[in-house]
TrEMBL record:
Keywords: Acyltransferase, Lipid A biosynthesis, Lipid biosynthesis, Lipid metabolism, Repeat, Transferase. GO terms for molecular function: N-acyltransferase activity; UDP-3-O-[(3R)-3-hydroxyacyl]-glucosamine N-acyltransferase activity. GO terms for cellular component: membrane. This is UDP-3-O-acylglucosamine N-acyltransferase. Homotrimer.
């Protein structure tokens, strides 16, 4: 796709300084700009690059005054960083603006499909699936029986949604995500063999949830595993059966949450955090990366370590952790003096 400086300025409500007809078809950093690329200058640290960049168009603040000749066409806006972000969002919408049903796909007669839907090739939809308006399902996706998908939700290639699950509106599900696989439920018999416990619940994602690539969310044994409105999940997260995550909580990559744990609203959880099962984490909790959570957590706590301590206690303790060899040496010397003098 190609855009002229004039078209971009109209989108951003900016002013063109230079050739309004110059075209761009790619984006770049200002220091790596090439002909036909669009970039931006927001941080004064990078100002020197605007005088030698080969980019065709640069978005700048209206306050920018060049000290020497600038070759690219400039688009002047109130806030270059925000305008560039707006342009990225617009570009993404255009890029994902697909419609229609490609072939081959499997779409049973019982499927209900809304307006302006896109279903990519080699996708499979089960019986009684309900798809809302403007949903995008990219190629090689699997949608099981009785699944519902709300308006404006996007499923990228290779997504797997097992039967009975429900996705809300404006969700984004990235490639390789599996929603609704069996929870890890087994019970030993009298011979010590593990017998599988049927997992007959489902998974519910509320509106505006984003799930990162290769994340897995297990169905409940009974009832539902629930991801509340506005939750953002990074890549490669494991969420076990009957977990509930409160609205607007964000969780970084490789975190694992064991079964039946409840996490509150507006929490911020770092990467590689491990949660034991059947615990409750309050609202507005912050947990540093690689922490281990094995107990209930109250509202507003800030935790670090494994097992996790309060963030302040952990930092105080760390002063002693790193000095343990010196402390041990001092104790040994004191003991030698004590016993040597006795």
């Amino acid at each position: 796709m190609k855009f002229t400086a004039e078209q971009i300025a109209d989108i951003l409500e900016g002013e063109v300084s230079g050739n309004p007809s110059v075209e761009v078809s790619k984006l770049s950093k200002i220091e790596e700009g090439v002909e036909g690329a669009l970039t931006f200058l927001a941080n004064p640290k990078y100002t020197s690059h605007i005088y030698n960049t080969k980019a065709s168009i640069v978005i700048v603040n209206k306050s920018f005054t060049p000290e020497k000749t600038v070759t690219p066409t400039l688009i002047k806006v109130d806030d270059a960083y925000k305008s560039f972000s707006k342009l990225l969002e617009y570009y993404n919408q255009v890029k994902l603006n697909k419609f229609g049903i490609e072939q081959p796909v499997v779409v049973p007669e019982s499927t209900v499909i809304g307006k302006d839907v896109y279903i990519g090739a080699f996708s499979y939809l089960g019986e009684n699936v309900v798809i809302g308006d403007n949903v995008k399902i990219f190629p090689n996706s699997f949608i099981g029986d009785n699944v519902t998908i709300g308006d404006n939700t996007i499923l990228f290639s290779g997504t797997k949604i097992y039967s009975e699950c429900s996705l809300g509106k404006y969700c984004i599900i990235h490639s390789g995500v599996i929603i609704g696989a069996d929870g890890f439920g087994f019970a030993p018999n009298e011979n010590g063999e593990y017998i599988k416990i049927p997992q007959i619940g489902n998974v519910i994602l509320e509106d505006f949830v984003e799930v990162g690539a290769a994340t897995t969310i297990d169905r409940a044994t009974l009832g539902s595993t629930i991801i509340r409105k506005g939750v953002k999940l990074d890549n490669q997260i494991q969420i076990a059966h009957n977990v509930e995550i409160g609205k607007n909580t964000v969780i970084a990559a490789q975190t694992g949450i064991a079964g039946s744990t409840k996490i509150g609203e507006n929490c911020q959880i770092g990467g590689q955090v491990g949660f034991a099962g059947h615990i409750t984490v309050g609202n507005n909790v912050k947990i540093q990366a690689q922490s281990g959570i094995g107990r209930n957590v109250k509202d507003n706590e800030v935790l670090q370590g494994s097992p996790a301590l309060s963030y302040a206690d952990y930092n105080k303790s760390y002063v002693y952790f790193k000095n343990l060899p010196k402390l041990a040496k001092s104790i040994n010397e004191l003991e030698k003096k004590e016993y040597g003098n006795s």
